[in-house]
Automatic annotation (TrEMBL):
<dbReference type="InterPro" id="IPR009045">
    <property type="entry name" value="Zn_M74/Hedgehog-like"/>
</dbReference>
<protein>
    <recommendedName>
        <fullName>Peptidase M15</fullName>
    </recommendedName>
</protein>
Length: 234
């Protein structure tokens, strides 16, 4: 179950790069679809390409800045990767942001160049062939980096740093996702979208030596049951 995303005038001006006056003329002329709530106009998305201008898109692509000593163009190149990025924004990140507030993406899209850098300098805990962070990008040998396609990102919601179970339950119950890796109430959530959207919830536990190991998992309706179970755990 997903709800159509509506954008405020401020957000839509930013996406369209227009002034207040230009936005009004576009609305009056019938170029834009909108609904009115009180004195506010809320706009419907007429071109999904605009999603790539949203601040969350900038986070999705530029998350690495400040974490890695490399300055590159980390935007997707493959057309399928671009489609997956738009899907991630429309069906996952924007609904979560609208429900809970500001999102901080801790690990987002990884281009071929960024992947090469990470694997050389800080590869621990990364699995580029399966983790979906590289979407459908190709390496220098023209081989697909990740065989699963789709796109993944890890994030935490500001104000919910110790309540990420609530965000996990919302995703599982309401959004079209491929995989969710749940690390605990006080850890970022890994979520992906994909061609199949398996609705796979995977619990990740921590071993005595600090390694992450798979725990319980479930799909579809069973994933909803597992999500509720996890929320009520101490």
């Amino acid at each position: 179950m997903t709800t159509e995303i509506l954008f405020s005038s401020k957000e839509f001006k930013q996406l369209l790069s227009v002034s207040d006056c230009e936005l009004m003329h576009m609305r009056v002329s019938g170029e834009l679809k909108f609904v009115k709530k009180g004195n506010a106009f809320l706009y419907k998305l007429h071109d999904k390409q605009l999603l790539l201008k949203h601040p969350l898109a900038s986070q999705l692509f530029n998350w690495y800045q400040g974490k890695h000593s490399i300055n590159i163009d980390n935007t997707p190149k493959a057309s399928e990767s671009i489609q997956s990025a738009k899907m991630m924004l429309e069906t996952i990140l924007l609904p979560i942001s609208n429900k809970f507030g500001d999102i901080n993406i801790t690990y987002g899209f990884v281009s071929a160049k960024l992947n090469k850098f990470i694997q050389k300098n800080s590869a621990s805990g990364t699995y580029p062939s399966i983790d979906q962070h590289a979407a459908s990008e190709f390496n220098n040998a023209n081989n697909q980096i990740c065989k699963r396609h789709g796109l993944a990102c890890d994030f935490i919601v500001k104000g919910y740093e110790n309540k990420m179970d609530k965000v996990m339950v919302f995703i599982v119950n309401n959004l079209a996702f491929d995989k969710v890796y749940y690390y605990g109430k006080n850890r970022p959530i890994h979520v992906s979208v994909g061609n199949e959207n398996l609705k796979h919830l995977q619990v990740m536990n921590e071993s005595k030596n600090g390694r992450r190991i798979p725990g319980k998992r479930a799909y579809g309706h069973k994933a909803k049951e597992l999500a509720e179970e996890l929320q009520h755990e101490c």
